[in-house]
Design goal:
337 residues; alpha/beta; 5-stranded mixed β-sheet; 20% strand; globular
Length: 337
């Protein structure tokens, strides 16, 4: 137990396609201990790895519950992974199986929802009422807070904002559609836009053109942002295009949800100084009835890569408190961890 907060310690786990990161989190949202391991490629091996990580933390702390932040579809009961594109689970009752193995309550949550909850409880979304979180990385993840509560939809999969079509017959998307928002507003989109501009006039850019000439596959969104920071003209045009698409997308999202706050998270948010002011202008110009309504505040996330773990741990803590009198919350006869 945490002496200062009087609340149980919980574990939040970021189940990524490359690594598992598990952290002990206290009631104030502070990360006390972390273990990491590569993500196994089979369902059984992945669950073995998760159990090992939690047990390692249990050996050093008294743990009350576990929350898993998963990039994929989680059912409305937060017990089953319906589908996760980078993980070996499909219609898998992960929470039940791990609860039985660990003797601890285990819940699942979409990774964007976990990050939203962390930012709401301890970060940039604190004090928000109706909040949209847009996590921009390889693609776009998103979460909604409505009246201070996470909105998951009827079947647990809302909202897939990154796959709203913004360009009919546009760039092909891994989801099977074309012209999705994330194909124009993501780390991957930065690369695609840069390659398109360089194909038009490769001599305009000294930095990016040389890099692409050496190895066309070496270009990354981070490299494009770095080149923009160094004044590369093509990279600056790429960031301007990105800002336009971000502003247009946020205006459409605001027309639907009318949030008081928008939080920009994910790896691309670390380069916000290159695009956020322009995105705010595009947002203000594109939103319906801009002169007759209050606009949402737009800010960047505060908790960085730890947000998913902190949020999952905090949601597990809330579930534990709700079920503290439920004798079935922990499998009978199983000692914790």
């Amino acid at each position: 137990m945490t002496a200062a907060m009087g609340q149980p310690l919980t574990v939040g786990v970021d189940v990524g396609g490359t690594n598992i990161r598990a952290s002990v989190v206290d009631g104030a949202g502070e990360v006390l201990d972390t273990v990491t391991a590569p993500t196994p490629q089979s369902a059984r091996a992945l669950e073995d790895g998760l159990a090992r990580a939690v047990r390692e933390l249990c050996a050093r702390h008294r743990i009350g519950a576990v929350g898993l932040a998963v990039a994929g579809f989680v059912d409305e009961d937060r017990a089953t992974v319906r589908f996760a594109p980078h993980l070996p689970w499909e219609d898998a009752p992960v929470a039940t199986r791990l609860t039985d193995r660990l003797g601890l309550p285990v819940i699942l949550e979409h990774d964007a929802n976990s990050a939203m909850w962390a930012e709401y409880r301890f970060g940039a979304a604190a004090g928000g009422h109706n909040v949209v979180l847009v996590a921009i990385g390889t693609g776009i993840g998103a979460a909604l807070l409505v009246g201070g509560q996470l909105y998951r939809g009827s079947y647990g999969v809302a909202p897939e904002l990154g796959h709203v079509q913004v360009v009919p017959n546009g760039r092909a998307c891994a989801c099977g559609k074309r012209g999705c928002w994330e194909r124009y507003c993501s780390g991957t989109a930065l690369v695609d836009t840069a390659l398109e501009l360089l194909a038009t006039d490769p001599r305009r850019s000294t930095l990016l053109a040389r890099e692409v000439h050496r190895d066309p596959d070496s270009l990354t969104g981070r490299r494009v942002a770095g080149a923009a920071q160094d004044g590369d003209p093509v990279a600056l045009d790429v960031m301007a295009d990105f800002a336009r698409w971000l502003g247009l997308g946020l205006a459409a999202v605001s027309d639907i949800f009318d949030p008081d706050l928008i939080v920009i998270a994910g790896g691309v948010s670390t380069s916000a100084t290159l695009f956020l002011d322009d995105a705010r202008e595009h947002y203000a110009q594109s939103i319906t009835g801009a002169k007759h309504r209050r606009l949402a505040r737009i800010r960047t996330a505060q908790l960085g890569e730890a947000a998913g773990m902190i949020g999952a741990a905090e949601l597990a803590r809330a579930a534990l408190v709700e079920n503290v009198e439920n004798p079935d919350a922990v499998s009978a006869g199983k000692p914790p961890c």
